[in-house]
């Protein structure tokens, strides 16, 4: 945790391109720690984040908590990376320990006066959005049921000026969102559909739609997961948590744009009222769906949420985020987020935003040949294809419900969460990935 302050501190942290990894010195009675960024020509935003995190953690290990970070020429325009490195490098999910131990560091930034204060605040808000996403995604399933999550969303986003509506099981049924209820009814912890409206430009009818998968626990239902697979399903609501993080930044930064967020929140449990493979459900869209694998539940709840976004909220484009497939984890590990789109321009704009924010995404294809895998003997469509191309098939299923609106699907199953520490600033657990990218994409759209 970081408190950003203004006064001069006891330790100075700076950066260099020399070979020597860490250089320690004293000047005017101030301890100076200088951390290497590696070779100048190989500098990446990840290296900056890691060097910042490393420097702060070295200082913390000396039991010192008052730090001046000198941006110098090297990092003068890289302060977003500095904030990310500092906040994520010192992040620890507080959890449910009886005694908590982590101590905040107080950091002030020394620059040459060129930092625009408002831009600095906007960047800080992006990282705050990431922290919100991380904290919520890290919460255990029993502490964050659909009902609790829906209330947290309402409280948090109403506070920053959004309109929040929570639809309960009966409303969902009335709207014929039978896929959402088919999954939600597997649990006594009731499903919710949360709709958030941010109106930053009342003069425009245009709206961006964000849709996030909010499975608070995923047992796989009758397609029960293995003991290993069951351990970390609390992150299956990361799509929804990421959407909340993005909405929080948009609202805090008062973007002149309209965004509507839709989050279906359900548990996917094994119970007397769970679906059984072979069951057929009629979606809100009208298409009938044969459910051949109950563990492919994310695409089902997203399908109805997207129909609702298109027909009831009348959004002009859709960006959905979901921890959708193990297949994307096999493809990219925890390095790239997989993206899929029916619109080259939109996919390109989001890729540009990702590059700018130092996040890695890669577009995978959609193709009519994959649609054949979803042809069902008894219904309009089935919810799984064959044993191969799982992430693409998942995206293809969702595509059936977007009604030709420009759409991007981000499969974040590999990048939203990992159990162990990956690097100095990637300390394990939820990551907040894609909050910066999608915020940036939306911010860029305002100026167009
Ligand atoms: N939430 C999972 C995807 C997942 C798996 C995320 C592993 C992170 C790690 C999703 O609901 C799921 O179970 N997908 C199945 C789909 C399959 C049955 C077609 C999968 O990927 O195994
Ligand atoms: Mn599943
Ligand atoms: Zn799932």
Comma- or semicolon-separated keywords:
448 residues; alpha/beta; 9-stranded mixed beta sheet; 6-stranded mixed beta sheet; elongated; binds ligand BES; binds manganese (II) ion; binds zinc ion
Model description:
It is a single chain. This protein has 448 residues and is α/β, with parallel strands linked by helices. 35% of the residues lie in helices and 22% in strands. It is built from 14 helices and 20 strands. It has helices at 45-61, 79-89, 117-137, 146-158, 169-174, 178-184, 227-230, 238-252, 298-311, 326-332, 344-357, 368-371, 390-399, 435-446, and strands at 2-4, 11-16, 22-27, 30-36, 66-70, 105-110, 163-167, 192-199, 208-212, 214-218, 258-268, 279-282, 288-291, 317-322, 337-341, 361-363, 381-382, 407-411, 417-418, 429-430. The strands form 4 sheets. Strands 7, 8, 9, 10, 11, 14, 15, 16 and 18 form a 9-stranded mixed beta sheet that branches. The protein has a 6-stranded mixed beta sheet with strand order 1-6-5-2-4-3, covered by helices on one side. The protein has a 3-stranded mixed beta sheet with strand order 12-13-17, covered by helices on one side. A hairpin with a 2-residue loop joins strand 3 and strand 4 (30-36). Helix 1 crosses helix 2, helix 2 (79-89) packs parallel to helix 3 and helix 3 (117-137) packs antiparallel against helix 8 (238-252). The longest helix has 21 residues, at 117-137. 49% of the residues are buried. The mean pLDDT is 97.
